[in-house]
């Protein structure tokens, strides 16, 4: 039962992570007024919580449940999955730092300055994150079917 609970938490975290990124991408696609900027800041917090849930549940599953750490560490596809997750985490720093810079102004009721080039970079970073995240479950399915050994 514990394995099922952690597997569910892991999958739910992945879905929340994707949903948060899609939401951030959509919010950046329009006029970033005060309301949308606040939504963006809230969504970024959800993104962080989802990433933490994915990481923590994944570590518990890898070390203590399921197929055991030897199964994962012995498979090169796992290393690709982990690398993609780290890449996504590193990429997420740029949008998160931009959003964190808005927080004081948002508290005072000010929308972030209109910086179309910076917003365009943030959108591209999010697109790369979404692409990398979409590959991670594929690698998991392949691992579960015995690929990589």
Q: How would you sum up this structure, described in words?
A:
Helix 1 (2-28) packs antiparallel against helix 5, helix 2 (34-64) packs antiparallel against helix 4 and helix 4 packs antiparallel against helix 5 (116-144). The chain is built from five helices and no strands. The chain is mainly α. 83% of the residues lie in helices and 0% in strands. It is elongated. The chain has one domain (2-144).
Topology:
Blueprint: H1 2-28, H2 34-64, H3 69-73, H4 76-107, H5 116-144
Helix pairs in contact: 1-2, 1-5, 2-4, 4-5
> H/E element string?
HHHHH
Taking the alpha carbons of the first and last residues, their distance comes to 28 Å
Mean pLDDT across residues: 91
As a percent range, the share of helical residues equals over 70%
Report the biggest beta sheet as strand number plus sense, adding barrel if it closes: none
Total count of helical runs of at least 4 residues: 5
Query: Can you tell me the number of structural domains?
Result: 1
User: Helices and strands: which structural class?
Assistant: mainly alpha
What characteristic shape results from the CA principal axes?
elongated
Unreliable residue runs: none
Radius of gyration (Å) = 17 Å
